Amino acid sequence: MTEPLDLAINRRAAVRRIALGVGSWVDVVEGFVREAAVTFAEINESTAWMQGEVLRYDEYVPEKRLGAGLTSDARPLFRQAELHLQSTYRAAVTGVGALLYRTGEDFQGLHSDRQMRWLDDTLVAIMVLGQRRPFVFRERRPLSEVVERVPAGREAGDIVLTPGEGDLLVMGGAAQRDWLHGVPRADTANPRISLTWRWSSRRGRPDTNPSYYDGRQFSDRSQRPGTRTRRP
Questions:
Q1: What burial class does residue 170 get, using C-beta atoms within 10 Å of its C-beta: 0-12 exposed, 13-18 middle, 19+ buried?
Q2: Is 45 inside any structural domain?
Q3: Calpha distance 28→165 (Å, rounded)
Q4: Total domain count, the chain
Q5: So what's the pLDDT on residue 55?
Q6: Strand pairing of 154-155 and 149-150?
């Protein structure tokens, strides 16, 4: 059976699963987006990108990237990807969260998507357009544990992928509970866009610790929102 000519995704693209640990995994789907370069340019030019700011110790600091909230019906690509994820993984994913890394100086530190709260059984799908860059996975460890460091701020045991140019990453199981992921600085002047869908089964014990987006404060003043956005 051939694929419809107007389909923006390759539903038959090969899937490579990488086991992250007991109950945690990531699927790598290379070449998931057809006409990825054209799609990147269209999304980059048509999106109203915003500068996110995170509350850190009583002052807002800009995030090292731009973002936007898009809807699944904004483009056929988004709707097709959402339906594909729902049928493949039997999960009612929601999205679309968009991030623009303008150059290699834009980055995202190691974190997990703990804003979903229920982390025992989750799905986080990230479609990556534009520049290929390292995408690092690191097992969550106690802060007191000493690890052997390797060059460029990485650690022994890190798993590093280089998605881009229309690839799809799907993190599943307990990956948000037991693993961290991030996009470190890179030696490139080229931009990168990621588009994210999320789902949680909401089973197990909810994570009630503050997430990256909840803000951190020293003073006794009334708690302010952890994040805000503005035009760049």
A1: buried
A2: yes
A3: 13
A4: 1
A5: 75
A6: antiparallel
Q: Is residue 10 included in any domain, yes or no? A: no
Question: Using CA atoms, how far apart are residues 178 and 23, in angstroms rounded to an integer?
Answer: 9
pLDDT value at position 218?
A: 45
What strands lie across the sheet with 159-161, from one edge to the other? Answer: 108-111, 179-183, 135-139, 159-161
Strand-pairing partners, residue 37, are: none
Measured between alpha carbons, how far apart are the two ends of the chain, in Å? 46
pLDDT at 97: 96
In a domain, 213, yes or no: no
Distances (CA, A) of 169 to 68, 125, 174, 219: 19, 6, 15, 40
CA distance 137 to 180: 6
- Window from 22-26, 69-73, 151-155, 176-180 with minimum mean pLDDT: 151-155
Under 8 Å between Cβ of 26 and 169:
yes
